[in-house]
Amino acid sequence: MFDEAAESGDAVRRQLSENVDQIARIGARLRDRPPVAAVTVGRGSSDHAAVFAKYLLETRQGVLTSPSGLSVTSLYKSSLRLDNTLCIAVSQSGKSPDLVSAVKGMRQSGAFVVALVNAEDSPLAENADETIPLRAGPEISVAATKSYITALSTIAQLIAHWGQEQQLLQEIEKLPDQLNTAWELDWSAASDAFASETSMFVLGRGLGYGLAREAALKFKETCSLHAEAYSAAEVLHGPAALIAEGFPILAFMQNDETSRSTSDTLLSLAARGANVFTAGLSGPLVTELPTLKAHPVLQPILMAQSFYKMVNTTALARGRDPDRPPNLAKITETV
Fold it and tell me: What is the pLDDT of residues 177-195, one digit of tens each?
């Protein structure tokens, strides 16, 4: 896990070199025939990447986006009316039967299917209209890292080309070097604190919410630490009742329209006694983790890279093998 996550910058550099013409062409196609809605398909870390896609599609293109219930097609055998709909499918292996079945059914129902997949010769790729290779390279560790980073990068590139956002495209060119720098940031204050915990929250909002879900999954997978992800708004609608003195929280906050409300929530929870660690917020009641200044769309990607190094350290401190979590396999096939 450690070595693979460290390669993320190089993987994104490969993407920028080898995928640009294809992504620009797909972006032009989406401008010429804009979809009325979008659906996303993914499991695990790939589903968390799809959450990032949802917020970008809705905030930058105004396209209503919803995750697909895969059992609708794989088990219920129902057909959906998807004319003029975009389907974005994300997967490392591209092999899970329910994912492939969903994509096949959506394409037959009229959706334009774009697959973001690391295994270019996978069944998922065979059933897509367009397959964008993640180019993460081999990923052996059960816990996905660089395939998640490259999925986020691909999504950002696709949205930027679709909207002809030149400033964002220019900032994306800096991403490989920024990822290498983010890897070197010191988040040991968090790993030291989380090494002895049994339960925690991970918070984010908007573009950072998918990362909160991904981080919570990684704590469970690699550290055997029960972590629940919430929107920094949703946490106040019930879950905050669990917070007592010293309750651990990790929060991600990108510098965009969500930052003020997220900041207010985190400072409020800290005032109630929570032990809050924040990426993107400084204050007297929280422990600030170092982050890089970057375009708000790219900040969650860079925070993910710093997080992966930290969670690997946390797993080892808890006596766990982050590469071989119990009860899990690298390729999970569900129906």
Answer: 999 999 999 999 999 999 9
Indicate the residue among 115, 145, 173 that finishes a domain: 173
Render pLDDT for 97-134 as a digit per residue (tens, 0 to 9).
Answer: 999 999 999 999 999 999 999 988 999 999 999 999 99
Q: How far out from the chain centre does Cα 249 lie?
A: 19
Selected catalytic residue, list 95, 174, 220, 330: 330
Beta bridge partners of 218: none
Domain that includes residue 19, residue range: 2-173
What are the CA-CA distances from residue 243 to residues 191, 218, 227, 248, 252 (Å)? Answer: 20, 21, 13, 9, 18
DSSP string, 191-243: HHHHTT-SEEEEEE-GGGHHHHHHHHHHHHHHH--EEEEEETTGGGTTGGGG-
- Rounded distance between C-alpha atoms, residue 29 and residue 256, angstroms: 29
66 and 119 housed in the same domain: yes
Looking at residue 238, its pLDDT comes to 94
Helix (H, G, I), strand (E, B) or coil at 112: strand
Provide the CA 243 distance to its chain's centre, in angstroms. Answer: 26
* Neighbouring-strand partners of residue 288: 278
Active site (annotated) includes residue 330: yes
Tally the domains of the chain: 2
Q: Name which of 14, 296, 305 is nearest 132 in CA terms.
A: 14
Domain assignment of residue 84, yes or no: yes
Q: Note whether 206 and 113 are same-domain residues.
A: no
What is the pTM (predicted TM-score) of this model? Answer: 0.96
Phi, then psi, of 112 in degrees rounded to 5 = -90, 110
